[in-house]
Design brief:
With about 270 residues, the chain is an alpha+beta fold. The protein has one domain: 4-Layer Sandwich (Deoxyribonuclease I, Chain A). The chain has 8 helices and 14 strands. The protein has a 6-stranded mixed beta sheet. Helix 5 packs parallel to helix 6.
């Protein structure tokens, strides 16, 4: 099973750039999208349905802002929009589906953490989101052991995840309390799937549009797929696709192996 997490920075924009053709060629089983920036009625959903995806959209109430979506080749057993807090859910930041995989029920949670780049207005909301989402996951984990958390965390975990750690110590996205939050997720029983396979520097998932940052590879790794420890035995590979240019982010990919294919047939 191939799972893609991708901040597309506007679904209508990436569709115009040929994103649907890429999906058709790459064949992900699950696609978690962040920053769709559109209501479902503004999207030609038939483009994805034609490729045999079940589509679930959770837009922000604010026009042209935030929003997440999950496209799945497998019909979910359960769908959950938001975490039950209006102040968070109105921005369309959390979407969960449960599916069967290798005769197990797994939860795939797509999240888009707020940016704290406007440190006066939004950093406190980012911390509020972090606290409430951690409580949500901690509670969910008591009954659901098989969890994947996919999305744009807007946080770099360690020094090797940012091109200039020394000069970004006081910038949101690399603050000690933000990095500690990811550490607490790891301690709760999650694996940073990319770092499970790749230990070296200079691997990023977001680059500023300014300063020719992507060409110079001066980026930040802020996109993740976190995997419950219990699912480690199914992990086959995890990687970034920096050559995919549909937005200022690149896709993050997790591959899971199984004794069954995605349609439930023995392999």
């Amino acid at each position: 099973m191939k799972i893609v997490s991708y901040n597309i920075n506007g679904i209508r924009s990436v569709i115009r750039k040929g994103f649907v053709n890429w999906i058709n060629m790459y064949h992900p089983d699950i696609i978690c999208l962040q920053e769709i920036k559109a209501f479902p009625e503004q999207i030609n959903t038939s483009l994805f349905e034609h490729l045999k995806y079940y589509c679930y959209w959770f837009p922000s109430q604010r026009k042209g802002y935030s929003g997440v979506a999950i496209l799945s080749k497998k019909k979910p057993l359960y769908i959950k929009y938001g975490i039950g807090l209006e102040s968070i859910d109105k921005e369309g930041r959390v979407l969960r589906i449960d599916i069967n995989f290798d005769k197990k029920r797994i939860s795939i949670i797509n999240i888009y953490l707020p940016s704290g780049s406007n440190m006066e207005k939004r950093l406190s909301f980012k911390f509020f989101f972090m606290k409430k989402f951690f409580s949500y996951i901690k509670k969910l984990k008591k009954n659901m052991k098989n969890i994947l958390i996919c999305g744009d965390f807007n946080i770099c975990y360690s020094d090797i995840d940012i091109h200039d750690p020394e000069n970004n110590q006081n910038i949101s996205g690399f603050l000690p309390q933000e990095r500690k939050w990811i550490e607490n997720l790891v301690r709760l029983g999650f694996i940073d799937s990319f770092r499970f396979y790749v230990k070296t520097r200079n691997h990023y998932s977001w680059w500023n549009y300014r300063f020719n940052a992507r060409k110079k590879n001066k980026g930040w790794r802020i996109d993740y797929i976190m995997v419950s420890h219990i699912l480690e035995k199914y992990m086959k590979n995890a990687y970034l696709l920096p050559e995919i240019y549909y937005s200022d982010h690149c896709p993050m990919v997790l591959e899971l192996s199984s004794s069954f294919d995605f349609d439930g047939k023995m392999t």
